[in-house]
Amino acid sequence: MIATSLTVVLLSLFSTVFTQTDWLGGSGSVGPVGNWEDSFECSTGIDWAAEQGKISLVQNTSVPEVITSDLDSPACMGAADIDGDGDTDVVCAGFLANKLVWFEHNEPSGWTMHDVDVNVPSCCATCVLDMNGDDFPDIINASEVTGVISWYENNGTGTHWNRS
Predict the structure, then answer these.
(1) Cβ-defined contacts of 27-33 (< 8 Å, 24+)
(2) At residue 73, what are phi and psi to the nearest 5 degrees?
(3) What are the pLDDT digits (tens) for 115-144?
(4) pLDDT digits over 29-78, tens only?
């Protein structure tokens, strides 16, 4: 079996800030004035902010956080607050693992895998939404092999799932 890493990119901002406050001739002077070194270049990773007499550039980088590498062939994912604790959890179909799982986001970091159904042949096409209006995110999932589409009703904590 080939294990595939499930990676979700979570934005963790490691910022380097460069601020220009000395305009040497007032507004309208030719700039930039100051030493930006090699840090300022055409990049989508640079944000800027302006105040009167001040421009700040912030260089941001995204750091991927691996949720798991123990789920064989993750096929489809969804995100919602499955357990009602206020943070976003991840639901994933394991195509070759033949199971449907959700990953509890443990603040401030870390993930715990919970099984929803461990017998879904070629588990795929996962969708997370509140099907019955009880304000708890439910899961809709399909099996490619059997052609069965199932609704998993969430009890609000993600600890028990009623399959329809």
Answers:
(1) 27/53
(2) 55, 65
(3) 999 999 998 888 999 999 999 999 999 998
(4) 444 444 444 444 444 555 555 555 555 655 555 666 778 888 888 888 88
Supply 126's token pair. Answer: 């996962």
Distance CA 71, CA 100 (A): 10
Q: What are phi and psi of 77, to 5 degrees?
A: -135, 160
**Residues sharing a CB contact under 8 Å with residue 6, sequence separation 6 or more, in sequence order:** 66, 67, 68, 69, 71, 74, 77, 92
Structure tokens at 73: 């062939």
Are 64 and 9 spatial neighbours (Cβ–Cβ below 8 Å)? yes
Does this model's pTM top 0.70?
no
Q: Alpha-carbon distance 103 to 116, whole Å? A: 10
Cα 155 to chain centroid distance, Å, stands at 23
Q: DSSP states of 109-159 as a string?
A: S-EEEEEEES--TTEEEEEEE-SSSSSS-EEEEEETTT--EEEEEE-SSSS
What percentage of the chain carries pLDDT values higher than 70? 61
